[in-house]
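Technical note accompanying the year-one report. For the benefit of new consortium partners, we illustrate the data format agreed upon in the data management plan: each record pairs a sequence with a C-alpha cell string. No post-processing was applied to the example shown here.
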Amino acid sequence: MDIAINITDLSNQSTFEKVFKTYYQQLAAFAYQYVACHDTAEEIVQEVFANVWSKSDQIEIRTAVKSYLYGAVRNACLNHIKHKKVVRQHEVYEGRKPEGYESNFLELDELQGEIDAALDQLPDKCRQIFEMSRFEEKKYKEIAEELGLSIKTVENQMGRALKVMRAALSKHIPSLVFWIITIVQKNLWG
C-alpha cells in the first residue's frame, strides 16, 4: 500500500510521521544493498529523513514521495561510498609516506595560515556567512534567519566565498582533504 503517493508536502508532522513509519524499514533495506552494513544503512536513512524534515519547507516533491525518498537514500549511499573511497585512498597515501613525514603538521600550519588569509580576502558579510556555515555548521536557513537575509542571498554569498577559497587554496587540495578528514575525525571522536 502506497499511502504517500499523492503527498508532495512533508512539512506537516503527522504526514511526515506516517511517511517515516511506512518507508523507514524499506529504505534501510534498500540502503543496505549499497553499504552492506545495517548500522550504516540505518544512519543514512535517518539522516535522509532528518534532512527532509529540516528542509521540508524548501523541498518541492514533484514525484511520488516514495520515489523521492528512494532517490535521496540512493544518493546518500553513493556519497557515503565515495567518501569511504577517499578515506581509503588517504590511508593508502599515508601508508606510502616516507619516514619522518611528520612535516605534514608543518604543512597543516601553513595551510591554516593560507585559509586564514583567504578568509581575510572575503568581504565581512560573506566571511561571516561562510564561517557560520562551515565552522558553526549552521544550515542556510538558520543563517538567513539569524542575519535577516534571504536564503538565496546566503547561497550566493556561500558560492562567492567557496570560489575565493578554491582559488586561494587550489594548490593544497590533497592537504586540504587531509585537514578536513582530521577535523571531521576530531569532531566525531573528540
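Partners are asked to follow this layout when depositing records. The helical segments are 13-35, 38-54, 65-95, 103-121, 124-134, 140-147, 151-169, 173-189.
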